[in-house]
Structure formats: C-alpha cells, structure tokens
Amino acid sequence: MSEQESARTSAGASAGSSRVDDVLERASHAFAIWRGAPVAARAEMLARAADAYERRADEIARQMALDMGKPVSQGLAEVRSCAAILAHYAAEADRMLQPEVVSRDDGGRAEVRLQPTGVVLGIMPWNYPHYQLVRCIAPNLLLGNAVVFKHAAICAGSAAIAERIFAEAGAPEGLVTHSGFSHDEVFSAIAHPLVTGVSFTGGEAVGAEIARAAGASLTKVVLELGGSDPFIVFDAERCDELARLAAAMRLSNAGQTCVSPKRIIVRRDLLTGFVRTFSAEFLSVRAGDPLLAETVLGPLSSAAAADELRGAVRSAQQGGAEVRGDLSRDDADPRRFAPVMLLEPLRDQPVWRRELFGPVAMIVGADSVDEAIALANDSPYGLGATAFADTEAAAQRFATEIDAGMVAVNRIRGGSPALPFGGVKRSGFGRELGVHGVREFANQQLVVVDEGRSAGRARIA
C-alpha cells in the first residue's frame, strides 16, 4: 500500500465493511478445510503452483513489465525465484512441520507443534509483484493458514494471475484471495476477529500505521520496511570485480530493491580505482523499454517517484556531495531515471539517512575497519549488509558488529528460500522464508504427555 493510497479516504464505508466480512468469511471457511488437509496434500498443491509459475513465466514477466516497468529479463528471474520458493516448501514440508522434542527431567514427553492460526492478511508492495507475494503465501499455505492479500494498485494484473495460479493448483475457494481492499477496508480487516496475522512490506510511515492498528487488535504483525544496505569493499585483490558486482546489483530492478547496495563503503586507498570501474559500468546504462529482452534498466514506478528522487540528489549536491550522472528529466517518459553516483555525501545530510529507491549509488571512503563499521551502522535501517574483507579478523568483525538482520561476508547473500529474510531497527521485525517464515504465523503449541500411563489412559497436560 503506497503512501498515496494511505492518505485516501474511501467512500461507501458500510458497503466496504460488508465486503471485508464476505472476503474474510470465505477465507475462514477455506482455512477450516485446508487445516485438515494432510501435509502431503498441501505440499503437492505448492508443487503444482511452482510448476504453473514455470510454465507461465513469459506471461507473468510481461505483465510485471506492464504493471510496474520491470524488464522482462528480470521478471523471468523473479518468476524462477517464486517457483524455487514454492518447490522448496513442497520438498521440505515434513521436516519443517516436524514437532520439536523438548527434554524433560521427569520422564514425560514434551514437544512443540506448529499449528495454523487462521487467516493471514498480506499487504504487498509493487516492486516485486510476485516474489513478495509468494514468500508470504508459500509458508502459510504449508502451515495450513489462509492468505488474503491486498496488492499495490498498479499491480492488479499481476495479483490476478497469482490468485488464478493457486486456484488452478487446487487451493480451496477463498484460501488465496486477491482482495482489492481499499485503504479503509485494509484497516477494517486488520481489526477483524477472523484475521490472526498481518504481513506488510512497504514504506516506514504506512508500516508504523499498520503496526499501531495491529497492536490495538492484539494481532501478530510482520513488517519489512526497506533499508539502506551498506556494501563494504576492503579486498584489494577483488576491487574491480566488486565494483562491477555493486554496479549490477544497484541497477537491478532500477534500484527499487530494499536490499540493494545503496551505501558503498570502500577502503580509502582503493577508492579511486573502485570509482573508476564502477562509473564505467554504472553510468553507461540507460533506461529502456522493459518489454525488450535486452533492457537492463527499466523506468521507475512513476514520474512522481523519479522527480522526488531527482530532488533528493540535487539537495545532496547543494550540500556538498559530488554528483556524477545525468539528472535531466526525460520528457518522453518521465518515469525514466539515468544512473547517478553521489560521492562522499556528508553523514549529516538527509540523503545519507534515507532509503534512495532508484538507481542512485552513494560511495564513501573509510580509513579503517572501525570507520567502515561506524559508517555501516550510521543508519536508521538495518535490513542487510555485504562486506568483503581483507583479513580474517576484519571478516569476523564485519559479521559480528554490523547491525543488520542479514550480513553476508566475502560473498553475496544469495536468494535461497531456505534463508530467513528480515531486518532490525527501522527496517521492521519478523522473518520471512525458511522455517522461520512458517513459524511467524503459527501457534507454537506445547504438548506435554505423561508417558508413564498406558496408551488408553494417556494424559495430555
């Protein structure tokens, strides 16, 4: 849900409330059926959905290009990620839902079982129309929950495809629902007694509003609110390679990625060479038609987003940062934004402490590991971080001392669905993917059995 949608006031509140009731009651009915389905049946449905994503990859990628401007080549990669997530949960179903045995000193047996809780409301962003959705849906369907989702308005076409895929894969009617809820209806749903969990990915201001609403209803919430990830380069031998890698990562999805390397911190004596190689890779790319296979950089989500980003860069330039790149507006398509580098922005400038959602790279030098860690942590966000160290001691310090939910040292994190995803500080809380994503909206139920009694008289306490 965008900030603009958040500000709107919906008409027809009574009709909206009735629609919320209808959607959630259908989802609750589907949940009652689905929670009783054998784990093997749930896994088979997820496997069929994975196959459907693979079969329909071209159609899905094209729709994402039309919805929000993602180049089709990157859309195809997103589809592959979705299929991999679904296949992973299908393959790991038994292991993930296996009860955890807890040791006891009185001879009895205790275990923690993951039980479904009901209907999860997913509030989805536009930047990864299917990936964000699937990483919410897959673990919850495996657990036995139902998912009602509200997608960004510009992604209605992608949302409809996702709903059809799960229906055709065998999900009971109402189990996975594209709600189309308005802003007011979203908040009515959060407060609804049938909603047992809320998962939100998006902006910090709306996330805080959702957290307040969920808290008022004592409803569990998971928030992924973006980041300003550091990318630290201290490895001299790989400097040119890492410059090219950072440029490619920052260009991906037109820089509209929460874990993109937005703040690049380079050992001072490597800075000149790094900037030279990075510039050659980064500034040579121009935005193109997202429907063409050769396009690397698509447009931003809107002309307003491009204008706002341009204003942030110009403000940093006025504050003393060196700007490299073309800041002119493309009147033929004002959503297009050429790559821009910000060299040595001051840490007291607003641009350093915000998330730049577009192909803008901030690059600063650091004289020591201490300074690099201080720069990395000097952010209200704490989603991810990547660091390439020159010594084992530096690698250990980066892993231990960087305040982020995910830290990769001497390699990129990668996108394995087995790895939990989430952050700290103002990047939110909770985890998606892996077994952690299953546990978020589970009743982690303790069951204690007195095994000293006969099976016929077994007592559960």
CATH class of the largest domain: Alpha Beta
- Rg estimate, integer Å: 23 Å
Structural class: alpha/beta
The percent range for helix content is 40-55%
Say which CATH homologous superfamily of the largest domain is assigned. Aldehyde Dehydrogenase, Chain A, domain 1
Strand order of the largest sheet: 10-11-12-9-8-14-15
- What is the average of the pLDDT values? 94
Work out the number of β strands.
19
Architecture overview:
The chain is α/β, with parallel strands linked by helices. It folds into 2 domains: 3-225 and 427-447, Aldehyde Dehydrogenase, Chain A, domain 1; 229-409, 3-Layer(aba) Sandwich (Aldehyde Dehydrogenase, Chain A, domain 2), CATH 3.40.309. Helix content is 42%, strand content 19%. The protein has helices at residues 3-7, 13-34, 39-55, 57-68, 72-91, 93-97, 131-143, 156-168, 183-190, 204-216, 239-251, 271-282, 303-318, 369-377, 392-401, 434-439; strands at residues 100-102, 109-116, 119-123, 146-150, 176-178, 195-201, 220-224, 229-233, 261-267, 322-325, 340-343, 360-366, 381-382, 384-388, 406-409, 424-425, 428-429, 442-450, 459-460. The strands form 4 sheets. The protein has a 7-stranded mixed β-sheet with strand order 10-11-12-9-8-14-15, sandwiched between helices. It has a 6-stranded mixed β-sheet with strand order 5-4-3-6-7-17, with helices on both faces. It has a 4-stranded antiparallel β-sheet with strand order 1-2-18-19, with no helix packed on it. It is globular. Residues 2-15 and 457-461 have low confidence and may be disordered.
